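hey can u run this one w/ NAP bound, need the structure tokens asap thx
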Amino acid sequence: MVSRVIPVDPFDLIIFGGTGDLARRKILPALFRRYCAGQMPFEARIIGAARSEHDAEEYRAFASDAIREFAVGTYSADALSEFLSRLDYVTIDAMGDLGWEELAGKLTEARVRAFYFSVGPGLFGELAERIHAYGMASKETRIVVEKPFGHDLTTAQALNATLAAHFPESQVYRIDHYLGKETVQNLMAVRFGNMLFEPLWNAQYVDHIQITVAETVGVGGRGEYYDKSGAMRDMMQNHLMQLLCLIAMEPPAQFEPDAVRDEKLKVIRALDAVQPHHIVRGQYDAVPGDDGHPSYREAVDNPRSRTESYVALKTHISNWRWAGTPFYLRTGKRLKARSSVINVMFKNTPHSIFGEDAGQHANVLSIRLQPNEGITLQVTIKEPGPGGMRLIDVPLDMTFSEALGPEDADFPDAYERLIMDVIRGNQTLFMRGDEVEAAWAWTDPIIAGWEARNDVPKPYESGSVGPRDADLLIERDKRSWRGITP
Ligand code: NAP
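ok here u go:
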């Protein structure tokens, strides 16, 4: 089974912030991989644009280094030089007139123009305005913006208004790279492509759902940014919220951008406010005697920081499908293992015909998003042997790389898929403005509550599963977290 690659139409992609970290680590390597896969046509052009002065040759050298460092997989030197020949560069100032006429002169008429705003959000308005002023906006123009999309509801509304003043929503692509992951899309395939699960996908059969996004890394070099943000803003408001939407939404009538995004929005709007005793914040400690693993406060160079590197919460979705089913969400840094997984915990059978000795058994559907992508269904069987009717739980495991073979399991990186979707004009995997605002409207009161109560995050050991209070949060409901395993 070899997956089909359908080339996109020739396009011009302009990367504002073309010399930045995101362009180097993600955007340029992703484009190169799509070029090697035969999806990006030779006629396509990529124009880096930033303030630093470079000519096209210097920019190609920059891109070549980036690709050598960050593009995974094998490729030929010929492919690399062909790809680099598609690159150009313009020295431009988003805040002034420098470079704009030159950029306008380089664009090809009558093809898709994607402007990737890989710069701080303070420049979005300036860029959007100048794209119009220099006559570069057309029906085939697309604007790509990165997270963070606002810091709270007010700033997100202001950003949306800025973009809306220049471009209709149908031309704005807000990237949450989580949505570009193969396995995240598989959530929809598993739910809506199999008759088996959907009839059971409701409060009558599901006891509760756990969503875990655990990282082993600390804040690294992002300390200054992260300390103003925290796990709630950096992960929960966007990535975990998106996973919650996909796992809980009603089946859209069609797999089309607005049909899917309408259903996701309904989930966010049906979320209950989180009670203060249903949320736990944490901050990781140093690894004793290991200078390479400082505490959170040391890493962000703020000894009094009250920003959380971990958050766990319980919430409910107030609608017919999910009334009464708790959703437990947790995410954190410096945890025991890197693991993103959704566990759908089914209820016990209504009556055990095997008597008390057989114990309590329930099915669990685990959807592993990373690493080791796949699905495991925990089923109950008879323990083999002559010792009577004892039951055990065994995993029915499907690891995608084993099921599909190594070639088909070589999934494109999220950025590869998302950039190609921008060119194709498919917004399904991009957040709509109202979705982002609804997510902030749910998040803001939680953060405001912490601030009003002067809440201090609980310390937790690096390499652990998080603060003890997070265990108590779920244990109070006579449930427990599934282990965090790679
Ligand atoms: P960065 O490394 O600081 O790069 C910023 C880029 O913007 C540079 O190329 C810089 O070029 C350019 N720039 C700054 N002011 C400019 C101006 N007035 N006119 C034209 N260009 C200007 O930032 P980054 O990490 O690449 O992040 C870019 C955006 O993506 C940010 O919004 C960030 O939050 C978001 N993001 C980044 C990552 C990541 O992994 N890096 C992940 C998710 C989201 P010069 O220095 O040459 O001016």
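The chain has a mean pLDDT of 93. anyway lmk if its weird
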